[in-house]
Known about the structure:
A: globular
Amino acid sequence: MRKTVLLVSALLLPMGSMAASYTIDPTHTYPNFTIDHLGFSTLHGRFGKTTGKLNLDQAKGTGSVEIVIDAASIDTGFKKRDDHLRSPDFFNVVEFPEITFKSTKVTFQDKGATVVGDLTIMGVTKSVSLAIASINCGVHPMNKKQVCGFDATTQLKRSDFGMTFALPAVGDIVNLAIEVEAVKD
Amino acid sequence: MNLPIMQELLTNPAVQAAVAPFTVALVSALLLRRFLPGGIGLAVIGGFFITVLLTTGLTLQPLTATRKIIVCGLVLPFALLLLDFIAEMPQSAGLKRAFWTLPALLLAAAALWIIWPVVQRQEGMAIWMMAVPVMLYAAVIISGVAALGRVQKQAFSAQAASALMLAMGTGATTLIAASALYSQLAFAVSAATGAVIVVGLLGSAEKPAKLGMLTMYAAAVPVTLFAAAATVYAQLPVLVLLCLALVPLFAGLLLCKPLKLIKSQQRWLALIIASLWVSIPVLPAVWLVWQVAGPVSF
């Protein structure tokens, strides 16, 4: 998702430029999620390792993005729970170590965009749509490189990806919010 | 019928892992005992199947490790029974011995198939370190269970204790090893096996109770593969497999002369004593996994 956002940002940034490729900055790109916990509270978590690339062809108005999230990098702030989330009950990270996103369509609106793509979790691929309110591009004040950043959000059902353990006690709806920064190659 | 209450019941882990499989297996076993005594093991498969329906569903795509185990748990007991049947046919002693080894080879191959997605990502010695214990465990357990199951006389308590403790031990250790799903499915096998044992104990005292090979295989195959897979996909220490592998051996010891005193007890009492004896190797297994992954917290 974060990569998707990156793609969108890359698409928006170089309005006046030619085709360009960007590399996601893994130290400023984190997919975050929230999920209902037994009806008592909302659990927050995130994935710590994300990589990806995006390509933008400004002349043609097209772009693409590929994102790879290290499923084992899930972090909810409590190791025992994280171990359980890595187990076959949830993300089954040993068998499916990567969560991937590959965009299929990018649509720009005002300052933001909508990115539709194929999200694959545990071997199940579903189309999801990421909403991006604003894409912010410019020169990084420290390293002087061209950078784009944005926040993307979406909502999905974990059961759609075969993650049915503890339903309905642990919520089915997962809210995703992805902070993305990408550096021009 | 109040659908929300029913829905709540069917999503309750205790109902899924214990009440539902026990009930289905009990009803099935009572019917099978009357109409198809030799197929009473079908009740264990039925109990396991109902828990599969209530937890993971019957979807096979993508064919994950868990789904492979479920397929094996539902299909392989019949294949093993067929191999036993072939082995019993008149043939040379050498060929007969070869057939006796096939169940072990089949289970070892099934275990390798289940962990294959991970094995193929390993290199060098890591492949063997991962695959060998898992395959050995599957082979040893099924060989032990098959040998135990072939004992015809006064082996009910030992066979029942072995099937129960293997399933319960697997359920307990996989639960602590952070896979509640594996645990639920293993406990479901335990509950279904328990139902078949109860039906076996209901018979007259003159007629010796029998579990049958299908029951032994139906109880052993899924839990063996769950424990083996949990060393790869969850946090089950390999040493736990060593402990659980002793379960059929301990059950077999009950058939030795010095321990045959148990036969003189009432059948219920004999079963309880046998279960306590066979649980001895399960205790260090639970302790080991607790050191690595406990306590459980969801």
